[in-house]
Amino acid sequence: MQTIKPIPLSSYKTSTTENLTSAEMGKLWATYMGNSMGKCIISYFLQHVQDKDIKALLENALALSEEFMKQMKDIFEKENFPIPIGFSDEDVNLSAPRLFEDEYYVHYLKYITKAGLSIYNVAVPLVYRKDVKEFYNYSAATTTNLMDQIKDILMNKGLIIKPPIIPIPEKVEFVHYDFMNGFLGQVRPLHALEITHFYDNIENNVTSKALIMAFAQVAKDEKIRQLFEKGRNLTSKNVESYMQKLHNENLPSPTFLDDLVTTSTIPPFSDKMMLFHKMDMFSMKIRAFGNSVAVNGRTDIAMLYVKSLLKIQAFVKDAMKIYIEKGWMEQPPMAAMRDKLAAE
């Protein structure tokens, strides 16, 4: 059955010869940077993985990153757009000892696949040029397929619990004035979307905490190492507060993954890439908190997310300061500085 009927419009206004829009430039730039980093990290994971299923999963993820980068390079070159430096073989030491157990690789892939889908799905309604539109449609579809493989492995190997089960409503009901109570009066149980976002934020943050703990363990620069330790402690406190909200309702939550980090202190990644990665991951948390607040109804939960948001923003700001001080931060495409232009 064909639900959406085709509309026979001419496609001349979305050709591959028109100029890239700001949305197309920005999304392609961010996508390229992220995939250049992911390619390095997954290449390192493949040096130590022993589980054949997880190895196949990593190989699929690496192949996608390489394919996406090739397609983006083609678009950049067509436009004489300078290809971002991003990250390369210089930022990864493939001979470094194992830093993570195999199980962690699957959790990590789920996290970065979520991040990728977020970028691609946001891009789809914003891009118009035919080749860019096709690229993001393809990226979203293939990354969704990868996510299905990740979830199958997590479930089949017993590496994860699904979101909590709650009762099916007996009838349609309408809320009352106390629906938003969180600190005073009668406080209602968590509703399904609040539970969903607590689960999602816990899942993301236990993965993030294990990663930043590992990065603090191997970072060379003392200032960066101290920032990682600060981020680790911040993430741990946030996770514990989200877990407590679920446990107060007698609901299960994902567990910490800290035990999946080995005791190696030899860095497999450059400080530059590790700092960028954590800056990027913490920035993604800000978006996740925004989504969580948007569907929340209780004042105590809103306050919890606002506090988390302020602390995460402070971490990203500190990380960006160091990144800029080191001369590592590439400038994304920008609007023209009209006030600096003058006729010759």
From TrEMBL:
<dbReference type="InterPro" id="IPR012347">
    <property type="entry name" value="Ferritin-like"/>
</dbReference>
<dbReference type="Pfam" id="PF11553">
    <property type="entry name" value="DUF3231"/>
</dbReference>
<dbReference type="InterPro" id="IPR021617">
    <property type="entry name" value="DUF3231"/>
</dbReference>
<protein>
    <submittedName>
        <fullName>DUF3231 family protein</fullName>
    </submittedName>
</protein>
